[in-house]
Amino acid sequence: MSAPVRRQPRTAELLSSAHAHQAAYLADLAELVAIDSGSYSPDGVNKVADWVQARLDRLGFTVDRIRLTGVGGHRSGDALVARRQGRLTEAEGGRRILLAAHMDTVFDDGTAAERPFRLDGRIAHGPGVSDDKGGLVAGLTVLTILQERGVEEYAELVFLATPDEEIGSPASRGVSEAAAHGMHYGLGLECARENGDLVIARKGIADFRLTVTGRAAHAGIEPERGANAALTAAHLVVALQSLNGRWEDVTVNVGVVRAGTRANIVCPEAELHVEVRAATADDVKRVEEAIQEAASRPAVPGTTVAVEQLDLCPPMEDTPASRNMLAEAQAAAAALGFEIGATSTGGVGDANLIAGTGLPVLDGLGPVGGADHTPQEWLDVASVPQRVALLGALIIALGDSTQGP
Question: Do 89 and 178 share a domain, yes or no?
Fold first, then answer.
């Protein structure tokens, strides 16, 4: 029997199961949305972690709960890395698949009471309903369905739940990168774009600080003895902003400028904070070289410029491997009776960190939602059965490499 014939009835069964689990999905989503779990609310995040861990325990996963040290004086919630072995070895064609979601939101404590979960027809509202509690519950629902269906044709499934994605994952970054080690595929459970598209690529972000050192002097008596760092900084702002448009899908933004202390002193020091977003690691490197080149030629004699890279979130690149994953997802969607596309975005997430390890990643595999980070955040609950079935079918397709597309 050919692979498509073998897969088609299973896809239909997945959709049937997803519909059967719709009421439970909505109940679970309402329960999680009712928990305030902002990134800076570790107790709330850990309440979500308690709930997720209990569900994973019941599904037969071995759960490693990792206590994390926060950064910047903020305590972090815990991260979860849960594993379940399949019945295939790698030698038999089994593959290891990482599913990634996050438990935190951008909202302050009290928001869940102010804007509780509600359904308006097919649209659900509430803090985190789309980003990312809708995707988190979808992933757990898929795992439940696969267990009920006896699907174990994979080497290993790993479920990652992080506590601080909304602030750049400062505490959990190492956990995500370690979880990606040894995996064959990464599946991001952020919700799909508003038009239903998956996410094939995310720009990376590099943050730089440029410190300009000049020489102070009395601005009225002997200004010629000074070297104005603010003037050099002004020239740098123009030079760095002019890098926009030099490379496709690259943006450069001088977001912070600080200089001087008093108007009657020739400015002795200035500071620029620069954000670079780029679709590829090569482009990030090109911009870094351009920044270094501009810094090596200060406009004002007697000034110097030091460049420091403060942070780097790697891009999730559009690669042949991720395109192959997309083709599998599109085939599964067609079997389910709908079409999906893929898009790139300038926003970053844990998928960037996972992709930065070299793992191919496809993101946006949660239900359809939008207006993230706003009071209008929404989730289309009518999209849940199809998207849950799609995710399940994709796990099946990727888990056994002996089965063709």
Answer: yes
Dihedral angle, C-alpha 278, 282, 283, 285, nearest 10 °: 100
91 and 68 within one domain: yes
Per-residue pLDDT tens digits for 342-352: 999 988 999 99
In a domain, 404, yes or no: no
- Rounded to a whole number, what is the distance in angstroms from the first to the last CA of the chain? 14
Domain extent at residue 212: 204-312
How much is the pTM?
Answer: 0.91
Q: Residue 181 has which token pair?
A: 């080690």
Cα 14 to Cα 171: distance, rounded to the nearest angstrom: 36
Answer yes or no: is 405 within a domain. no
| Neighbour count for residue 182 (Cβ, 10 Å) | 14
Domain count of the chain?
A: 2
pLDDT tens digit string along 259-304? 999 999 999 999 999 999 999 999 999 999 999 999 999 999 999 9
Catalytically annotated residues: 104, 165
Taking each helix axis from N to C terminus, what angle separates 229-241 and 281-295, rounded to the nearest 10 degrees?
150
**55 assigned to some structural domain:** yes
Query: Closest Cα partner for 179 from 237, 105, 122, 97?
Result: 97
Of 312, 329, 364, the residue that ends a domain is 312
Got the DSSP string for 63-80? Answer: EEEE----STT-----EE
